[in-house]
Amino acid sequence: MKVFLWIAFLIIIAVAIFAVQNSAAPLIEIKFLIWKFETSLVYAILGSIVLGILLTLFLWISKAIGASVQKKDLHKEIGTT
Length: 81
What we know:
It is built from two helices and two strands. By secondary structure, it is α+β, with helices and mostly antiparallel strands. The protein has a two-stranded antiparallel ribbon with strand order 1-2. The chain has one domain (21-80). The model has no long low-confidence stretch (mean pLDDT 81).
């Protein structure tokens, strides 16, 4: 668990350094279907990183809950036989 926390910490530091170094980047236009807006390149990249982290966490949480339920069912099955 400590290794995971250190890796996460290093990634956060790298993203923060990236954001500071590219804070003067020009505006870009983001289009998706009928949705369109302009933002800084840094915010677009940071937003995609945050979105990726959130999606990964949601998928991991659902998998962890499923494994927990399966483990609970197996314990019940072993206890009744």
